[in-house]
Specification:
The chain has 5 helices and 17 strands. About 20% of the residues lie in helices and about 40% in strands. By secondary structure, it is of the alpha+beta class. The longest helix is centred in the middle third of the chain and has 24 residues, at about 180-205. The strands form 3 sheets. Strands 1, 2, 3, 4, 5, 6, 7 and 8 form an 8-stranded mixed β-sheet that branches.
Length: about 300
């Protein structure tokens, strides 16, 4: 009597994404967390766009936003602020002297899903059949420095996720479409961009501004949730001269001049948007012009 062995196999080909580890853990240096506003991700593909498609509640766009938020939060270097009405915020920022005061963030991320598709690939043999579900996705992001309005990073990442089922002698695994493959493909695409986003946001010294400066209180924006502690010292800078690049038409701000330092004496506030710190100014040659606080900014000393 002949005995047939039935073999069933199901294989997945996906990339396991490890949480991003903050450099603060590796070097022992404390990092002042940057405030990053994430605008809505748009879905620029035609996938899953039917008659009743709602652009404002696109599930793939929200999916990409959630994945990026989780990866940035895992780095421990950011306070994430979700800004739904992106268009209105950008318009207001153009009208204000300091875009940061309107948007409430150091950087803003604008993203879109530029490619998305799935396909089934089959292979038949004498004794076995193999079927693979493959999902491919591409995600593009732009990182905007809110204080200048300039795009400091722009790139696109691509990801692929695959599920393979195999039957031998007519028996084996049979799988319908696996919806988690879209998560994995988008996650892999975003993972290619996260490290560069982190580096671009943290390369530039952390910056904030005076909220108030008088005999009653000297306050700056930012507090405990960003990692600011009592005793911290920051540089007080005057705004640098702005010059126009005749080739590109872009206004360039030259480096400012250090006029003194401030030392944090206490922190307060209920939320990242409303937090503040009490400070004491120390300067040898200059004093703060309380009538025009927009002339100054506070910068991390590296």
């Amino acid at each position: 009597m002949l005995l047939f062995c039935y073999v069933a196999q199901a294989q997945r080909k996906v990339e396991i994404v490890e949480p991003v580890v903050s450099n603060a853990t590796d070097t022992g240096q404390r990092v002042i967390k940057r405030k990053v506003a994430i605008g809505r991700f748009s879905n620029e593909t035609q996938y899953a766009k039917g008659i009743f498609y709602d652009k404002e509640n696109d599930p793939m766009g929200k999916q990409a936003l959630d994945i990026l938020s989780a990866k940035l939060a895992a780095s421990g270097k950011f306070l994430l602020l979700e800004r739904s009405d992106l268009t209105s915020l950008l318009e207001e920022a153009k009208k204000s002297d300091n875009g940061l005061s309107t948007i409430g963030a150091d950087y803003m991320i604008i993203g879109s899903i530029t490619e998305f598709g799935r396909k089934d690939v089959g292979k038949s043999g004498v004794f076995s059949n193999t079927k693979s579900q493959i999902v491919e996705a591409a995600v593009a992001v732009r990182l905007v420095d809110v204080s200048t309005g300039l795009i400091i990073y722009s790139d696109e990442g691509k990801g692929t996720a695959e599920l393979t089922t195999k039957t031998t002698l007519g028996v084996g695994g049979r799988a319908g479409y696996d919806a988690t493959l879209s998560d994995k493909a988008i996650s892999e695409a975003i993972d290619q961009l996260v490290e560069n986003i982190i580096n671009k946001c943290t390369d530039k010294p952390w910056r904030t501004y005076f909220l108030s400066y008088d005999s009653d209180a000297q306050l700056i924006a930012g507090g405990e949730s960003q990692g600011i502690k009592v005793g911290d010292t920051f540089a007080v800078m005057t705004n640098g001269k702005k010059v126009k690049n005749p080739q590109t038409g872009v206004m360039i701000e030259l480096p400012g001049k250090k006029i003194g330092t401030i030392t944090v004496s206490a922190t307060g506030g209920d939320t990242p948007e409303t937090e503040y710190s009490f400070v004491a100014f120390s300067g040898e040659e200059s004093t703060i012009n309380s009538e025009n606080l927009n002339e100054y900014y506070i910068e991390e000393i590296k």
